[in-house]
Amino acid sequence: MWKIKIVLISFMLTIVNLVYAYDDGDFQIWSTEVQEFKINKDLKVALEEEFRFGDNADDFFYHHYDLGFTYSLNKSLNLGAGYRHIYEKKKGKFKLENEPYLIFAYKWEWFKFKFDDRSRLEYRHFEYQTDSWRYRNKFTVKLPFRFTKLEIQPYLSDEIFLNFYGAAFTKNRFYSGLEFTVTKNIRADVYYLLEHTKTGRIWPDVNVLGTKIKILF
Length: 217
Description:
By secondary structure, the chain is mainly β. It has helices spanning 2-19, 21-24, and strands at 26-38, 43-54, 59-72, 77-90, 93-110, 113-126, 132-142, 153-163, 169-183, 186-197, 205-216.
């Protein structure tokens, strides 16, 4: 229940921050496209590409490719593994990060609310700094409502980032979004993301308008 409380508290803080979004932090746009292939009833493979624009959505600063596999042990438990190839602008130049990862996800329902608790372990290999390990946990609640023929469904998520060195808790992301079905094989997601990243002793925020398109094969 404590994770549910964290999500609800984060939602209220998000509403407050929306009023000051452009004054307190940068406004960004993130755009993601996923192609998901079903190998059999338990195994899926997904190809993902994402672009991010910062500095009031005027500067292209991030791009990644992602190849991931997901295996369903049962209706509640999923295991996954993958690799992410990242280019991110650092001091005016794009630098490379190679990131293999493992995923463990647990799903359940309660009074028609759908919950998803995903753990992700990443090994971050850099060419310009020391390699490191990072753990991420994303907790999602899908509300038991669907609207219109598009089956629009609202959700809330909170994700924490923990490094295995130095200051452990370094980043938090809160999502508030809408998922919907465009066609039988195309699903979409539009969300607002509030991100806080620890920099020294302060936690500057970033406000993101994100879109995600998933094509199912």
